[in-house]
Design brief:
Number of helices: 15
Number of strands: 0
Order of helices and strands: HHHHHHHHHHHHHHH
Strand content: under 5%
Distance between the termini: 84 Å
Radius of gyration: 24 Å
């Protein structure tokens, strides 16, 4: 039986064209206003208020006109081979079982965690992954590696988008606009508008964080954690957003970071290639620069500490060893200076305590300076 093509009808295209036209007009008007806003602080604040209000109205339109903007009923979904697994040189990575497993992991992202089918899908995916690993056949292990890596990248991107939607301040967000977003969100919640959306987004972000940790654990169990470590180390925008996230979400991200710090320490220990060692050293530095601030600011949790005393002591040791592995003193200085800033300026932070690493770096730098005299 033939499938309908995934093309929206003219009924759904019309409001989208109208919204795009309004957006284009607003952007054109904003360009003219931008030059004046740069000269006068008050105009910049007014501009940010107008932009925030306009974006808020655009997001409310689908709620007021669901019949126009909800085009789900106009589609019949037809899965394609490239919907789940990216092209790969390995034939096993583009096989039926790879697509089936990838579809399960994709569905897992979309099902609410309180759905009775969530555990069914997750248990099935976990069983298939474990069976592929236990059979110890290279083709099946390659399926696990490819599918889990794709799922990790997808979930990481969704997590960053969810945190940004919650009102976080990333690298590209203007500070004034960020503060206005928070004020607007607080006002809407106070008057009962948009509170469901905030709660829904918060649950989604925590759910995605939990699934990301689960995927990372599966990659580690299958012996393919290195790629995920690099992706987490490179997620600098998510790390920046996490600093202004809700405490519960921060707790989840601290747990993920702790997991990756432990695995990042072991990178390049048995790597014979010098070029690969250098690449992994850079990965460790990126991991420290990106996620060390969150450990300082998000380690206390909501009601209780995120980690036990033993877990904290273990991670402190891991951090110290990782910093010592940075052979160049200027890299150690950059990391320790960043730690000192967040550790001292966050009044509630008493961990991680890297005073010993700071003292070692300072003494080594002092000796180096004296040798040059």
């Amino acid at each position: 039986m033939g499938m309908m093509e995934n093309t929206p009808s003219s009924i759904s295209v019309a409001p989208l064209l109208l919204r795009n036209l309004a957006t284009s007009i607003f952007i054109y008007a904003d360009k003219s206003f931008l030059s004046l806003a740069r000269k006068y602080k008050l105009l910049e604040i007014i501009r940010c208020i107008l932009i925030t209000f306009f974006l808020f109205i655009l997001r409310l339109l689908p709620s007021f006109l669901p019949s126009f903007f909800n085009s789900n009923s106009l589609y019949i979904y037809a899965p394609k081979k490239d919907n789940y697994v990216s092209a790969s040189a390995s034939p096993s990575a583009d096989s039926g079982i790879a697509r089936a497993l990838s579809q399960l992991l994709s569905i897992l992202n979309d099902i609410p965690v309180n759905s009775r089918k969530y555990q069914v899908v997750r248990s099935l995916a976990e069983r298939l992954i474990d069976e592929n690993h236990k059979d110890n056949i290279q083709a099946l292990r390659e399926v696990n590696r490819t599918v889990l890596s794709v799922a990790f990248s997808r979930t990481l991107g969704q997590l960053e988008a969810a945190v940004l939607e919650l009102g976080g301040c990333g690298d590209g967000v203007v500070p004034v606009q960020c503060r206005l977003n928070r004020v607007l969100r607080a006002v809407l919640t106070r008057f009962g508008l948009g509170s469901d959306e905030v709660n829904r987004s918060g649950i989604s972000a925590e759910k995605l964080a939990a699934e990301l940790l689960w995927l990372a654990e599966k990659l580690a169990a299958c012996g393919y954690i290195d790629d995920a470590v690099g992706k987490w180390a490179s997620a600098s925008n998510l790390a920046c957003l996490a600093l202004s996230a809700e405490p519960r979400l921060q707790s989840s991200l601290v747990k993920i970071s702790a997991f990756f710090f432990k695995h990042a320490k072991d990178l390049s220990l048995e790597e014979p290639e010098e070029g690969k060692k250098e690449e992994q050293r850079k990965t460790k530095k990126k991991m420290l620069v990106s996620w060390l601030p969150l450990l300082c600011r998000g380690s206390n949790g909501v009601d209780v500490p995120v980690m036990s005393l033993n877990e904290r002591a273990e991670l402190e040791k891991v951090l110290e060893e990782t910093i010592d592995m940075l052979e160049q003193e200027d890299e150690q200085e950059q990391v320790l200076s960043l730690w000192l800033h967040h550790f001292t300026y966050c009044s509630s932070a008493d961990w991680p305590n890297l005073h010993a690493s700071y003292a070692r770096w300072y003494n080594a730098s002092r000796k180096q300076l004296l040798l040059l005299q």
